[in-house]
């Protein structure tokens, strides 16, 4: 006997309770955090339709630079072409589906190691040995498939939907909070990736933008940025692709470390107000982004299963930070402070995921300090409803 689908009208109707005003809304149904079937639905409804962040454009500054990334089981190549533009190509050879390359590097062509089919930086098939006897074979018909690409604030986004509307206009609510950081000119000295973290991608997004736990779970280390100083810019708009909150400080130039003070140089164009707050933003379904006076930070979230993710983490600084002879030492100090948060958050999110599998997992209620969660729900549910299989 086959297992009944969870993608039924009852589950669809239940989402409505999660998009009401924060004073009456309920948390999303636990099943959508644990179900393999629901993740498959999200792949089609979200990940193959929305803009997905793959990293910083500065990672590939020169012609021929490239790196690979896998999103929802799709291996991709992100490269800078001869025209200086960034392209995103499928890494799947159009002969026998071998992955053309992995890792990162610089080249003028991509050669599949299996049978030496060779592709240009733009994905065109340039060479295919011993195919001259194959009837009707034309190289122009077998290039690497392309994704749509857009750059925003120094980040590279890709979209499997070639007809997708531009991303930038849908992020305009957040841009005034970033203008004085000049992110397109800021520097990210590198990233690191945590693999097979045992929780659903939405748990990661919710925790990142959860002001309610700020100086509760992170007591002492985040007392300078208390939950009570969270603000949620309005109005929310259904056509927005960013959910964010502003987290106020008790003093200027706060820092997420044991000293509660900045360690790196402050971004010089920030106003006094901007130096007394952080912002935490979600650009779903892949990017979590935050700001502080001396650094920005981002998490690139990649589901590997209904209850597992990989997370690539990076920090962004003003260029002057890297000119400091003690930059590496300061970076180690800063990272040590962040690690306190990471350890506490990982313990919490692992236990949340465990609880979501319980028969007693609730449809909980929200605090006013969790307004961001309701906005994230609204972003999700709008897309769930549009792509729900039984509504077609």
Which structural traits does this protein have?
single chain, 392 residues, alpha+beta, Rieske Iron-sulfur Protein, Naphthalene 1,2-dioxygenase Alpha Subunit, Chain A, domain 1, 7-stranded antiparallel beta sheet, 6 helices, 17 strands, 20% helix, globular
In terms of topology, how is this protein built?
Layout: H1 9-14, H2 36-47, E1 52-56, E2 65-71, E3 74-80, E4 86-90, E5 104-106, E6 109-111, E7 118-120, E8 125-127, E9 146-152, E10 155-159, E11 191-197, H3 201-208, H4 214-217, E12 230-231, E13 243-248, E14 277-283, E15 287-291, E16 296-305, E17 308-316, H5 327-356, H6 371-387
Antiparallel strand pairs: 1-10, 2-3, 2-5, 3-4, 4-9, 6-7, 7-8, 9-10, 11-17, 12-13, 13-14, 14-15, 15-16, 16-17
Helix pairs in contact: 2-6
Q: Which H/E pattern describes the elements?
A: HHEEEEEEEEEEEHHEEEEEEHH
For the record, the CATH architecture of the largest domain stands as Alpha-Beta Complex
By CATH, the superfamily of the largest domain comes out as Naphthalene 1,2-dioxygenase Alpha Subunit, Chain A, domain 1
Adjacency order of strands in the biggest sheet: 1-10-9-4-3-2-5
CATH topology of the largest domain: Naphthalene 1,2-dioxygenase Alpha Subunit, Chain A, domain 1
Question: Can I get a quick summary?
Answer:
The protein has 392 residues and is α+β, with helices and mostly antiparallel strands. The protein is built from 6 helices and 17 strands. β7 and β8 form a beta hairpin.
């Amino acid at each position: 006997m086959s297992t009944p689908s969870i993608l039924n009208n009852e589950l669809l109707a239940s989402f409505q309770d999660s998009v009401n005003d924060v004073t009456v809304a309920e948390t999303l149904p636990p099943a959508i955090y644990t179900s393999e079937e629901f993740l498959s639905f999200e792949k089609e409804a979200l990940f193959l339709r929305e803009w997905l962040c793959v990293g910083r454009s500065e990672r590939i500054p020169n012609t021929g630079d490239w790196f690979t990334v896998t999103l929802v089981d799709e291996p991709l190549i992100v490269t800078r072409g001869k025209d200086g533009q960034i392209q995103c190509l499928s890494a799947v050879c159009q002969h026998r589906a071998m992955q053309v390359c992995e890792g990162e590097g610089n080249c003028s062509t991509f050669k599949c190691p299996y049978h030496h089919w060779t592709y240009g930086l733009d994905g065109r098939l340039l060479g295919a040995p011993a195919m001259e006897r194959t009837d009707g074979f034309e190289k122009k018909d077998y290039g690497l498939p392309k994704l749509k690409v857009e750059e925003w604030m120094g980040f590279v986004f890709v979209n499997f939907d070639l007809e997708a509307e531009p991303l930038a206009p849908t992020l305009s609510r957040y841009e005034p909070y970033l203008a004085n950081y000049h992110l397109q000119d800021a520097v990210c000295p590198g990233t690191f990736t945590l693999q097979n973290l045992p929780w659903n991608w939405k748990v990661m997004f919710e925790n990142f933008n959860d002001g309610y736990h700020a100086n509760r779970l992170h007591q002492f280390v985040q007392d300078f940025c208390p939950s009570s100083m969270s603000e949620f810019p309005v109005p929310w708009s259904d056509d927005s692709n960013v959910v964010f909150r502003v987290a106020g400080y008790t003093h200027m130039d706060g820092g997420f470390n044991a000293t509660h003070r900045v360690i790196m140089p402050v971004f010089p164009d920030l106003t006094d107000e901007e130096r007394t707050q952080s912002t935490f933003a979600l650009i779903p379904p892949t990017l979590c982004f935050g700001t502080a006076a001396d650094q920005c930070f981002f998490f690139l979230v990649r589901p590997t299963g209904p209850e597992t993710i990989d997370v690539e983490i990076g920090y962004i600084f003003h260029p002057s930070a890297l000119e400091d002879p003690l930059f590496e030492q300061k970076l180690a100090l800063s990272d040590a402070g962040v690690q306190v948060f990471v350890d506490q958050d990982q313990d919490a999110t692992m236990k949340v995921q465990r609880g979501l599998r319980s028969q007693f997992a609730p449809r909980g209620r929200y605090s006013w300090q969790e307004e961001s969660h309701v906005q994230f729900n609204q972003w999700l549910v709008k897309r769930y409803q549009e792509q729900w299989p039984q509504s077609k």
